């Protein structure tokens, strides 16, 4: 039997389509590492997830106070975007 709080976490995972067969993404408000890369460069910075997402999905993230962008969930805690 799930303990207190565990049931809510299981329900959240099921609602978002994650679980043993679907790697968990991030919840809104979670801290993520965002990596922007292009030919010959790569930069990383911490950001705040603004949307929930599973691996492979695109989500909005906030860098600093005013900058929002969409990035692809690479793995739990990491999002990224390739620039031309």
How would you describe what is shown here?
The chain is mainly beta and 84 residues long. The chain has one domain: SH3 type barrels (Roll), CATH 2.30.30.760. It has one helix and five strands. A hairpin with a 2-residue loop joins strand 1 and strand 2. The longest helix is centred in the first third of the chain and has 11 residues. The radius of gyration is 14 Å and the shape is globular. The chain starts with 5 loop residues before the first helix and ends with a strand.
Q: Count of helices?
A: 1
Give the C-alpha Rg: 14 Å
Mean pLDDT comes to 76
Class from secondary-structure proportions = mainly beta
> What kind of assembly state do the chains in view correspond to?
single chain
Element pattern in H and E:
HEEEEE
Principal-axes geometry comes out as: globular
Give the termini distance in whole angstroms. Answer: 50 Å
- Per CATH, which architecture? Roll
Strand order of the largest sheet: 1-2-3-4-5
Number of strands: 5
CATH topology: SH3 type barrels
Strand content: 35-45%
Main beta-sheet strand count, sense and barrel state: 5 strands, mixed, barrel
Number of domains: 1
Q: List the uncertain runs.
A: 1-25
In which range does the helix fraction lie?
A: 10-25%
């Amino acid at each position: 039997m799930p303990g207190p709080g565990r049931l809510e976490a299981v329900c959240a995972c099921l609602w978002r389509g994650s679980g043993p067969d679907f790697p968990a993404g991030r919840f809104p408000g979670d801290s993520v590492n965002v990596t922007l890369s292009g030919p010959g460069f790569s930069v990383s910075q911490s950001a705040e997830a603004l949307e929930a997402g599973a691996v492979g999905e695109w989500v909005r993230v906030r860098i600093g106070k005013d900058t929002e962008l969409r990035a692809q969930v690479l793995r739990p805690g990491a999002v990224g975007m390739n620039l031309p």
